[in-house]
Design a protein that fits this description.
The complex is a heterodimer of chains A (116) and B (114). With 116 residues, chain A is mainly beta. Chain A contains no helices and 12 strands. Chain B has 114 residues and is mostly beta strands. The interface between A and B is medium-sized, with 23 and 25 residues.
Chain lengths: 116, 114
């Protein structure tokens, strides 16, 4: 069975600084997707960034980038130039590519605090 | 396009009762998934529906059930409620074929069981 682990329950960063959130996963499959989702206090979950396992290039979305290490089964999220609006709970998630399932397996989440 | 909508947003029930939660996906999305979010267990997958058929199911007891209608709207039902069923229930929809497409989440239904 696949598992996702986020070892940092809470992180804090100074506004305008850079922070990295860690995520490791375990799977025996070679083809899958990895995601980072953000859940602000309003509770609406939104996608931050996605990575397809067959792509070696790390995904980037504006201030958000990932460090995808497939052999190490590691998928960290880097937030550059942190803003107050980045404060939220961040979830790392895994999804199988095969069978076209939408089932996401989530980590426990990391609460990010941004200090002004 | 309107986003994923869930009704009701808040619900208080008593142990032993049953509850039905509703989810309307984004127009054109045919796949709907349900998740339970609790502080202790985190986000756990309940089930996924596509074209009125359950495509995948998580490790939840039979008290949890769902269905999908021809217009892709979905409902989930929890019978004989227990205190541990108190949670935020999230619904997510995505288009098909999905590929790497993201799932769009609704605001959730906060269920409190007393």
């Amino acid at each position: 069975a696949q598992t996702v682990t986020q070892s940092q329950p809470e992180m804090s960063v100074q506004e305008a600084e850079t922070v990295t959130l860690s995520c490791t996963y375990d799977t025996s499959e070679s083809d899958y997707y990895l995601f980072w989702y953000k859940q602000p206090p309003s509770r609406q979950m939104i996608l931050v960034i996605r990575q397809e396992a067959y792509k070696q290039q790390n995904a980037t979305e504006n201030r958000f980038s990932v460090n995808f290490q497939k052999a190490a089964k590691s998928f960290s999220l880097k937030i550059s130039d942190s803003q107050l609006g980045d404060a939220a709970m961040y979830f790392c998630a895994y999804r199988r590519r095969s069978s076209n399932t939408g089932k996401l397996i989530f980590g426990q989440g990391t609460t990010l605090q941004v200090k002004p | 396009k309107a986003g994923v909508t869930q009704t009701p947003r808040y619900l208080i029930k008593t142990r032993g009762q049953q509850v039905t939660l509703s989810c309307s996906p984004i127009s054109g999305h045919r796949s709907v998934s349900w998740y339970q979010q609790t502080p202790g267990q985190g986000l756990q997958f309940l089930f996924e529906y596509f074209s009125e058929t359950q495509r995948n199911k998580g490790n939840f007891p039979g008290r949890f059930s769902g269905r999908q209608f021809s217009n892709s709207r979905s409902e989930m039902n929890v019978s004989t409620l227990e205190l541990g069923d108190s949670a935020l229930y999230l619904c997510a929809s995505r288009p098909e074929p999905a590929g790497s497409s993201e799932q769009y989440f609704g605001p959730g239904t906060r269920l409190t069981v007393t």
